[in-house]
Design brief:
By secondary structure, the protein is of the alpha+beta class. The chain folds into four domains: 162 residues, MoaB/Mog-like domain (Molybdenum Cofactor Biosythetic Enzyme, Chain A), CATH 3.40.980.10; 50 residues, Molybdopterin biosynthesis moea protein, domain 2, CATH 3.90.105.10; 84 residues, Molybdopterin biosynthesis moea protein, domain 3 (Molybdopterin biosynthesis moeA protein, domain 3, Beta Complex), CATH 2.170.190; 72 residues, Beta-clip (Beta Barrel). The chain has eight helices and 27 strands. The strands form eight sheets. It has a six-stranded mixed beta sheet, sandwiched between helices. Strands 20, 23, 24, 25, 26 and 27 form a six-stranded mixed beta sheet that branches. It has a four-stranded mixed beta sheet with strand order 6-7-4-8, with no helix packed on it. β21 and β22 form a beta hairpin. The structure holds adenosine monophosphate and magnesium ion.
Length: 409
């Protein structure tokens, strides 16, 4: 069958099939909590203690029994001084305790009066200038984390705040999914590596290899171990050799370019020579051609060569796949509804992902050139509008916006 005539496949359908192939990798790794950012937690994190461990002061001031303070201006002797980290003695009746933020509340006290509402009266003690409410400025034991609570769940991707939360319950290391091993290579005889030829000496027809850079960075942001095979020439034998080698020790082989069915596109026959391949025409713009297959035990994914197509298909398909390999529970990015501050008068039969910027006005501005070769659109923009197939957009319409912050983390 002529592949180019194959019916276009809805993106969600392609994604569901990919995720069905993404069996979670076996093996976990224990990493320092310092190094756990962006890794996927491999087991529930249960707290063995409560946080904070005891009632403590939210302010610098004086701990008191609120019932003992009938009038503003009452003078109380100061019976103890409790800095953070100290142990408190029970509060003697009729007295106040000097207390500092984070210090434990002495037994018997039920309120803290902030020091701005007090006046030190030397030997005599302290004058309380404002009537306290019972419970004021006390941070309750366990108000952050209860003993036995699951503070982070298996499948969550660790964030900087999660590293802190894990530390707050005493975890110096965390058990996370192992890193997917990914072999990356670019195809295309026109490609030149930056640094190998200076811009003024580039031959006609030559272009610098840009995909290799963003793909490598995107993979590393997803905590993959990347083997970069560089540029593979547009020859069947060379492509087969690279694939065979890469398939031995990797979970995924990722390529860019050469995935169409032109004479110079060698990915399809090469993968088919070694394993299996499905070439999909996905109803998405930019992006259309995309290949999934297996070479030995390794998954294979072929991205289109056009830089923006490569970038967008990575974000929409490869990213969720790699997250799922690590056992991540959330693989799909959230979108938000925002007003379009542009017109998009021509509907496409494919679902489109337009490069836009979330402007100061609160609306979305469109990068003027949406060509799949114009990578500037993806640096100028800070996200994508997910525009359904067959839909036009008029200025003011509410559209689905996926910030790059959601997709690049
Ligand atoms: P292909 O998918 O190989 O037909 O390539 C489609 C277009 O993307 C062509 O214009 C290629 O020159 C370009 N292209 C392919 N690979 C890369 C790459 N790694 N970096 C920049 N452009 C590329
Ligand atoms: Mg090519």
């Amino acid at each position: 069958m002529n592949q180019q005539r194959a019916p276009l496949r809805p993106l969600d359908d392609a994604l569901a099939e990919l995720l069905a192939h993404a069996v979670v990798l076996e093996g976990t790794e224990t990493v320092s909590t310092f190094d756990a950012d962006a890794r996927v937690l491999a087991q529930d994190l249960v707290s063995a203690l409560q946080v904070p461990p005891q009632d403590n002061s939210a302010m610098d001031g004086y701990a008191v029994r609120s019932a003992e303070i009938a009038d503003e201006g009452v003078l109380l002797p100061v019976s103890q001084r409790i800095p953070a980290g100290a142990e408190a003695q029970p509060l003697s009746p009729g007295s106040a305790a000097r207390i500092f933020t984070g210090a434990p509340i002495p037994k018997g006290a039920d309120a803290v009066v902030m020091q701005e509402d007090c006046e030190a009266a030397g030997e005599q003690g302290v004058r309380i200038k404002r009537l306290p409410d019972s419970g004021q400025w006390i941070r309750r034991a366990g108000e952050d984390v209860r003993r036995g609570a699951v503070v982070l769940s298996k499948g969550e991707r660790i964030t900087p705040a999660a590293c802190g939360l894990a530390a707050s319950i005493g975890m110096e290391s965390l058990v996370v999914a192992r890193r997917p091993k990914v072999a990356l290579f670019s195809t295309g005889d026109e490609l030149v590596m930056p640094g190998s030829v200076p811009p003024e000496q580039m031959k006609p027809g030559a272009i610098y290899n840009s995909n290799r850079f963003f793909l490598s960075v995107l993979l590393r942001r997803l905590e993959c171990e990347v083997s970069d095979y560089g540029i593979v020439p547009d020859q069947r034998e060379a492509t087969i050799k690279a694939l065979a080698h890469a398939s031995q020790e990797h979970d995924l082989i990722l390529t860019s370019g050469g995935v169409s069915v032109g004479e110079e596109d060698h990915i399809k026959p090469a993968v088919e020579a070694l394993g299996t391949l499905d070439l999909w025409q996905i109803a998405v713009k930019p992006g259309k051609p995309f290949a999934y297959g297996k070479v030995g035990a390794a998954h294979f994914m072929g991205l289109p060569g056009n830089p923006v197509s490569s970038f967008v298909t990575f974000l929409l398909l490869v990213r969720p796949f790699l997250l799922r390999l690590q056992g991540a529970s959330r693989t799909v990015p959230h979108s938000m509804q925002l007003p379009a501050h542009f017109d998009w008068p021509r509907a496409d039969k494919r679902r489109e992902f337009l490069r836009v910027r979330h402007g100061k006005s609160g609306g979305l501005e469109l990068f003027p050139n949406q060509s799949s070769g114009v990578l500037t659109s993806a640096t100028w923009g800070d996200g994508l509008v997910d525009n359904p197939a067959g839909r036009t957009i008029a200025h003011g319409h509410s559209v689905a916006f996926i910030p790059f912050a959601e997709l690049l983390a």
